[in-house]
Design brief:
The chain is of the alpha/beta class. The chain is about 35% helix and about 15% strand. A seven-stranded mixed sheet has the order 2-8-7-6-5-3-4. A three-stranded antiparallel sheet has the order 10-14-13.
Length: about 425
């Protein structure tokens, strides 16, 4: 008779360094509170469908019409007509050597980030990642055996990097530079001159340039998105895009990766990406039929981001609330779907973003994401999404202000006790 063992089963040690608080501990606690009958208002995630946005009807119709053609695997890199449309978009943006052979469709950009890094990194290789970053980037570097090296995009610099400071971070193991523009979590939109300097920096050091452009058409009040690929002819450039944000189709899980620039020096890497794509067979076929109408059909985002549009109004509501606050400040959010306010720690000494987020959830039933979750050293910021209606955001920020007031009163009381 075999003897039973009581040995515990453990996760991979690589997961010990991985964080994803956007859907982490606080989100789990929110579900527990909901199970007890509490209504939780969510500011934690950029998921348009849960805030009443709809995927454009012409995308829905395209998927429905092609369901009979969706029951077999497609080519591992994606449907040819869909890749043609992605290449056409890239060429309209000035990317002269984009091709269907170097274009990959995935189950969201998230999958393609993992594939791109898996195909590139050897154990111990380093990747320059912005801080703050979308934490999937840091996690994917770690899970693929690499070492993330964070470069500062500080609030006092409007969340933009200083290219001169990047020079000191390069080592013989540095393989890639990640750029997120428009930026999640800060809403920063990178100026053209900065992008040119980042592209030149990557070329000078022989780095693969990885540009996360999932929010490319979501900009406000004259801010202009510039794709970096046309500026990066002298190095290998990977551009990531998709349907989830601009086209409000998160659940479709459609992303793409377009290689450009020094592709002639990347045959071995491209072959590796094709192999990885084949190992997962293909991305989901039905949703790929939405790519052509999304990229060649009517513009459905412009009315939302211009003055009078819903996203523009929500952004204004957040800016107004921060301006009225006794405790908050934030550089202007020029793009994407987020704001990244900071708390004045002279008013609330010892402020901790995670403790604040938890107390806000418990007391006010409002869920947001602590700023330190985005791989920054400071703990006085938090991220909110701009997706709720403007009136709802104004009310949510009133609750944030109320909780900050409680913390300020508690801090003042503690100082009185300490000085007595």
């Amino acid at each position: 008779m075999l003897q039973k063992t009581t040995e515990r089963f453990h996760k991979s040690p690589s997961l010990n360094e991985v964080r994803y608080e956007i859907r982490g501990e606080l989100a789990h606690r929110a579900r527990e509170l909901e199970a007890r009958g509490h209504r939780i208002d969510r500011l934690n995630i950029g998921n348009p469908g849960i805030y009443g946005f709809r995927t454009p009807e012409h995308l829905r119709e395209a998927v429905a019409a092609r369901l009979p053609n969706s029951e077999a695997y497609c080519q591992e890199q994606g449907l040819l007509e869909a890749r043609d449309a992605i290449v056409a978009q890239q060429r309209r943006r000035g990317v002269g050597n984009a091709t269907v052979e170097t274009t990959f469709i995935g189950n969201g950009v998230s999958e393609l980030i993992d594939v791109a890094l898996r195909g590139l990194l050897a154990p111990g290789d380093e990747v320059l990642v912005p801080a703050p970053d979308y934490p999937l980037w840091t996690a994917s570097v770690i899970l693929n055996g690499g070492q993330p090296v964070h470069y500062a995009c500080p609030p006092e610099g409007e969340f933009l990097p200083d290219v001169a400071e990047l020079e000191a971070l390069v080592t013989p193991r540095t393989r890639a530079l990640v750029v997120i523009n428009p930026n999640n979590p800060t809403g920063a939109v990178y100026p053209e001159d900065l992008l040119r300097r980042l592209a030149a920096f990557a070329a000078r050091h022989g780095l693969v340039l990885m540009s996360d452009e999932i929010y490319d058409e979501i900009t406000y009040d004259g801010a202009r998105f510039h794709p970096i690929a046309p500026m990066a002819a002298d190095t290998l450039c990977l551009t990531f895009g998709g349907l989830s944000k601009v086209h409000r189709a998160c659940g479709y899980r459609v992303g793409w990766l377009s290689l450009s620039g020094a592709v002639d020096r990347a045959d071995d890497y491209v072959h590796g990406l094709v192999l990885l794509a084949a190992l997962r067979l293909c991305s989901n076929v039905p949703a790929q039929w939405a790519i052509v109408p999304a990229l060649e059909g009517p513009d459905t985002i412009a009315d939302l981001v211009r003055p009078g549009g819903r996203l523009h109004a929500s952004r204004s509501a957040v800016h107004d609330a921060v301006a009225r606050s006794e405790f908050l400040d934030a550089p202007r959010s020029d793009g994407a779907l987020y704001a990244f306010p900071g708390v004045d720690t002279t008013r609330i000494p010892g402020f901790d973003d995670h403790a604040f987020a938890l107390s806000l959830l418990e007391r006010e039933h409002l869920l947001l994401v602590p700023g330190s979750s985005f791989n920054v050293p400071y703990r006085n910021r938090f991220r909110v999404t701009l997706l709720p209606e403007a009136a709802a955001l104004a009310e949510h920020f009133a609750r944030i202000e109320r909780e900050l007031g409680r913390l300020a009163d508690a801090a003042w009381s503690s100082r009185r006790v300490a000085s007595a």
